[in-house]
Amino acid sequence: MSDVKHYKCTSCGAPINFVPGTDTLVCEYCGASVPVSDLLKEEKNAKSFDWTAYAPEELTATPDKEYVCASCGATLQSFDSQFVTYCPYCGNNVSALEETKGGMSPNLIIPFNIKKEEVKPKIREYLKTKKLLPKSFLKVAMNADVKGVYVPFWLFDCEAEGEISLHGERSVSESFTNDKGETETREKTLHYRLEREGHFELNKLPVDASTHFDNKAMDALEPFNYSQLTDFSDVYFTGYLAEKFNSTPDDEMQRTKRKIQEGITDFFRETERKYSNIRIIEDNTDVKIDNIKYAMLPVYTLNFNYGDSKRQLFMNGQSGKIIGDLPVKKAKAFTWFLGTFTVVLAICSLVSFLI
Ligand SMILES: [Zn+2]
Ligand SMILES: [Zn+2]
């Protein structure tokens, strides 16, 4: 049995919850408020876990599975998939110290910015813009439970070194003489092979670290604004669920490399504006991960059944961006949003030739 920390009102003993978009926790019953900074002061200066140098065997070290609620004395069970964030018996916000300090703890967190009560009105507005959506879908979605979940992400700082061959196109007008001997112009598409050599540094590339969430959906929820990324504290967990990672940085390497490739392609799309339809045709890029951080990012979820199928709607808990698996326009529902991380440095040597 191990220690838990509880977050409750010092005046009335009711749970206190973090209020999105503010720096305070507020008591549900008496309205007393506590600044986040007061609670952070009480935290020990636990050293943030170094995920860049982790050894795979460390990941098997699991903390105690049972905790005692400091408020009601009930035994709390810890699960592999979720952090202990509240006591199901007395409803108090608790936090199991072993889970959130040292060892397996997250390094960074973006606190919720959107309040739970704002979620459904925003989703209603969003769904109303979908003209082909059956009306019954909106009704079912509005009856679903809104859950606020911190989703685990790996943030990779990486360097990519390599040679890339891109395909690009340019339209040119050319003059020609027609059958009647007159001069006319016509559009012609020229195809180019662009050879690029470069060194890229990418900052905090986000990669979903939980298999419980659809990777494409999580990618589509980006971008997150990193200016609100702060040192991890379980103070922000109050009032929310928090998922643990279940896929390691190594497990995610393939996907990471693909995202880097997309980021680089996107960089070229931005910088080589005279070419259109840019795509990678050959890529010999070596990727080196310099730094790994374990971050918790805020997501609202709505799960419900519609007809015979299970449906999900997600909202970025920071920006309010909504994505969903809708019964119509499905192809558009999960748009792959690129360019969500920063290419901080790109030194390229450029060679282009017509093909
Ligand atoms: Zn109170
Ligand atoms: Zn309790």
Q: How is the biggest beta sheet arranged?
A: 9 strands, mixed
Q: Which H/E pattern describes the elements?
A: EEEEHEEEHEHHEEHEEHEEEHE
Total count of strands: 16
Give the rounded overall mean pLDDT: 83
Using the CA coordinates, give the radius of gyration.
25 Å
Helix-residue proportion? 10-25%
Task: Give the cofactors and ligands.
Answer: zinc ion
Which runs of at least 5 residues are low in confidence (pLDDT < 50)?
A: 329-342
Give me the secondary-structure category.
Answer: alpha+beta
Count of the domains: 2
User: How much strand?
Assistant: 35-45%
Tally of helical segments: 7
Give the N-to-C terminal Cα separation. Answer: 69 Å
From the spread of the alpha carbons, the general shape counts as globular
Relevant terms:
355 residues, alpha+beta, 2 domains, three-stranded antiparallel sheet, globular, binds zinc ion
